[in-house]
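Risk mitigation, structural track. In case the binding assays with WT7 fail to produce interpretable data, a predicted complex structure has been prepared as a fallback.
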Amino acid sequence: MSNEIDALLQEHRSFPPSEEFRRNANANDESVYDVTDREAYWASWAEQLDWQTKWHTVLEWNAPYAKWFVGGKLNASANCLDRHLATRGDKQALIWEGEPGDVRTFTYRELYAEVSKFANVLKSLGVVLGDRVAIYMPLVPEAIVAMLACARIGAAHSVVFGGFSSEALRDRIQDAEAKVLITATAGYRRGNLVPLKKLADAAADDCPSIKHVVVVMRRAVAEELDDTVSMKPDRDCWYHELMRNASADCEPEWVDSEQMLYTLYTSGTTGKPKGIVHTTGGYLTEAYATCKWVFDLKEEDVYWCTADIGWVTGHSYVVYGPLAAGATVFVYEGAPDWPKQDRFWSLIEKHKVSIFYTAPTAIRAFMKWGHQLPAAHDLSSLRLLGSVGEPINPEAWMWYQKWIGGERCPIVDTWWQTETGSIMITPLPGIVDTKPGSATRAFPGIDAKILDEGGNEVKVGGGYLAITSPWPSMLRGIWRDPERFEQQYWAKWPGIYFTGDGAKRDEDGYFWLLGRVDDIINVAGHRIGTMEVESALVDHQAVAEAAVVGINHEIKGTAIAAFVIVKSSRAEEAKRDPAKFEKELKDHVTAKIGAIARPEKILITSDLPKTRSGKIMRRLLRDIAEGRALGDVTTLADPTVVASLKDKYEEES
Ligand code: WT7
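Fallback model:
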């Protein structure tokens, strides 16, 4: 890591926006950064939304508990749909393309009708204000309809990424006590079918809170799946059958500004994922504001954020932000390399995408596949590019700018988290000169600082990234776990939000994100807790002990390496056919959590390096797994442990 940091800090290239971009940008004057009255500033954004009842107090802050726009009533789906009908009723809200190439489009009026119908369906299934609804779906329009329908009746959705295992789904449903589960027969991934209904059944059968499972028939696959999809009488219902008779008339539930809009589970430093809670008024305000200024959304844009709705990026920047802003949102169901590695570029060309927001891991894969692929397509519709999920290395940034942006599109490298709800650190593309690898400046109204251990600000230099004032889209808590909420984010410095990220600030005040400082690994832009993977490994009957670390990976940024001590009863077998044994362990983790947690490397060892107090020395393990020279080992209880590990590693590679 330290080499990378050095490289980053030697990055002096800087790219101002073009005069033309600056002139037309939604935000193009440095004065937008002069926020003297933070509450008045955020209130002026909130005023751009539709409220059924206006708030009486902008902010009530009893650290760490915030309430924004107190007394206000609104509805998120009405802000994403109803309020556009008069001016944008026939404008495309959604252009969707499935992996097999099927295209469906929805105008704002059509999406409004679908959402209203499904809201009535949910009501008919007994869902009421405050209930939780789990969504486990491929990236199809019905998934977005389902989210907005929940919002319309004041139920909170809990979207679980379709790549998660049924066990992961079960745990999340049980924690949230969801009443209804919405799923699909299957989804497409690289030409294969992911049998979501089957996985959903395995979860739902263990979830007494689930009263109904609603199943979307993925049309193109209906026939192939006939024998793998079984419907449980009384519990399971087909989406299309319920929709057939549903009324398209559904008055939105005017909810309190602080009504929970959704919970979204994310990995923490313990084995148990946490349900991050977001509420309505503040969340929508900031998702909207950042869309207007960071993505510079204009009436004629075709906006594409490649995230799945299973992640927070899909919530804020596929659904709520851009639809609240009245944008045309493009959505693609499948993999970037299906049927060929130029799929994204052909989609941009075909649908005339003008704003493209993706992740560094994808950009690194594109680089590897070669610039000839984008070069063979007309990408001239693009005018702005974005990056999110992990630090972007300057080399990938430069490639993105040249081969995708044609050296004409500003790049917004946006730092934020599931917990922050919206983008927090980012260039404003019409104002800020960008530097490859830097997320640049805090969004206006956001108080981001680098602090040292003692909470003192570091003006120039490195430390912990902290947010020192409340912001509208901040998490309101961890579902049913206030203690963990306070401990995790607010205990390091009272009243100050601890992000878990290390960062540096340069002489120009620009932020350079350096990655997590806790036991969370960022694998291809997705957050995995080392403890989660370790508990999945020790759950295997052959594993006695496991330690997981993140190692550098060309495409994923970070990959998972697992050191495993095998129980003596299975040791012989592991030795006889290590490849088979390692695959068995990898498959086990995939089945327990999902493919994103699958270890890249399994290193079987007879011991783990621990300090005298029994703490696993993760940094040392990382050094070993990456084949680096070993540092000071004098604090090890048994220094020979490391030497033997190192020998073993060198033998293997
Ligand atoms: C963690 C949050 C925010 C949506 C996607 C991930 C890392 C995110 C950046 C960026 C450097 C970044 C941080 C953060 N991260 N964006 N532009 N530059 N690092 O959401 O799963 O909640 O993960 O992703 O480490 O803490 P998440």
